[in-house]
Amino acid sequence: MGLTDIADHTARIRDAVSVPLIVDADTGFGNALNVYHTVRTLERAGADCIQLEDQVSPKRCGHFSGKDVIPTDEAVKKIKAAVDARRDEDLLIMARTDAAAVQGFEAAIERAEKFAEAGADILFVEAVTTADEIRALPKRLFRPQLINMVIGGRTPIFNAAELGELGYGIVLYANAALQGAVAGMQKALAVLRDEKEVKDSSGLVTPFAERQRLVGKPEWDALEKKYS
Question: What is the mean pLDDT of residues 111-140?
Answer without folding.
Answer: 96
